[in-house]
Amino acid sequence: MAIATVNPATGETLKTFDALGDAEIDERIDRARAAYAKHRLTGFDRRAELLGRAADLLEADRDDIARTMTTEMGKTLAAARAEAAKCVKAMRWYARHAESLLADEQPARADVEDSGAVRAYVRYRPLGVVLAVMPWNFPLWQVVRFAAPALMAGNTGLLKHASNVPQTALYLEDLFRRAGYPEGCFQTLLIGSGAVEGILRDDRVAAATLTGSEPAGRAVASVAGDTVKKTVLELGGSDPYVVMASADIPAAAKTAVTARVQNNGQSCIAAKRFIVHTDVYDEFAERFTDGMKALTVGDPMAGDTDVGPLSSEQGRSDLEELVEDARGCGATVLCGGRRPEGLPDGWFYEPTVLAGITPEMRIHHEEAFGPVASLYRVSGPEQAVNVANDTPFGLSSNVWTRDEAEQRRFVRDLEAGGVYFNGMTASHPGMPFGGTKRSGYGRELAGHGIREFCNITTVWHGSQGQADPGTGAAAE
Which CDD domains match (predicted)? Predict the structure, then answer.
């Protein structure tokens, strides 16, 4: 795939970029490793100062970088501005909390004594150079939620971004440079996917994180396994949105529309399968379908647009194939199901609701990456859980019920990395994020995320131990 900015609202290629050569890649890995040797020795105060500056710069750049994101991948301008603001929030959160999240941990005194030590503790030390392979759908947020904790932990980063968001990728490198990070602490690599394996196999690279497709995750995990390197994977999702009989149906239906079409429907944690109790199915289906019909599809730069184009022509074709397969197998199209008329030659698709989904339909098991919703009718919690879990994915889940017994059951039985009641899934810097099954492994955000790329080190002192050297990264 060419490294280029192609406006998905028009199909026009605006700018192309040359991929780095082998010598340039080698030089940048060298820089990252040299920067790590110094950055790992800095104290948390200095790291927080640098990340705080980056947050301030991003806040000032918010409108400009939002326009760049919208131009490159088609999210609405309002969504792009919100994404930039969320990144600022996460940077400031990690600048405030990283030191406490990575503070030395003290084992129970009885265990210290039983081990024969006079003193023992656990220290979180950085791993080194971390390669980040990131997707186009949240081109700023996906990177920042890796970069902020990784840099605060003392690591350095190499970014291989999606080939259709090169200007956003270059902006991120420039952002950290302007904030005062030393050369090599965070670098963007304009490369194709074929170059990733060689970089990950390089001994100077310690670990990798990937957000993207299941095939991409398998490829990275395979190389990392062969080289025995730590990875975090956040892959696809086909999240259930369960509505039980006790739910507030008007609120559930209204939220369902946002949950499905956020980011033009191109979000791993967007609700995709709507599993509704038979007692409230008809009311929910009518309200939800009416809400999807009312959305405005069009120019993502326009203030009244709710849904912009899909990011690529291939993405739209893939979505159309899923819808046509379902239609051919007997699904009912309650709304949408086609390309909208009267729009420019971009990659637009109407918000769509499908009912009567059955297991032989591809959309029952595959992720629909666009504004297409699948409706299921169920008789109660047991069937709802069975349908919700009948997917290879397990990223997050949404459940609408006011019944506490049902809530406990869904927490116990849903196979997902998150269970959100009476609302919709949304990531937050203070809460761990990630999935199970084929949605990947490891966690991003919160304390769990910052510790993923740390060397969790046991420090043990016998009776001849030295004086306490102090705690934290500044004492490394």
Answer: ALDH_SSADH1_GabD1
Structure tokens at 63: 């409108």
Q: Which long-range contacts (CB under 8 A, 24 or more apart) does 2-6 make?
A: 2/163, 3/163, 3/166, 3/190, 3/191, 3/192, 4/163, 4/164, 4/166, 5/71, 5/72, 5/164, 5/165, 5/166, 5/167, 6/72, 6/164, 6/312
**404 C-beta neighbours (distance < 10 Å), count:** 8
Q: What is the chain's length?
A: 476
Structure tokens at 171: 């902006």
Q: Is 82 exposed, middle or buried (0-12, 13-18, 19+ CB in 10 A)?
A: middle
| Residue 168 burial (C-beta neighbours within 10 Å; 0-12, 13-18, 19+) | buried
Per-residue pLDDT tens over the stretch 218-266: 999 999 999 999 999 999 999 999 999 999 999 999 999 999 999 999 9
Domains of the chain and any CATH numbers = 4-235+439-463 (3.40.605.10), 239-421 (3.40.309.10)
- Please identify every residue annotated as catalytic: 234, 268
77-101 and 141-152 are packed helices; what angle lies between their axes, rounded to 10 degrees?
Answer: 20
Q: Max CA-CA distance within the chain?
A: 80
The ranges of the chain with pLDDT < 70 are: 464-476
d(CA 100, CA 94): 10
pLDDT digits (tens, 9 = 90+) for 11-52: 999 999 999 999 999 999 999 999 999 999 999 999 999 999
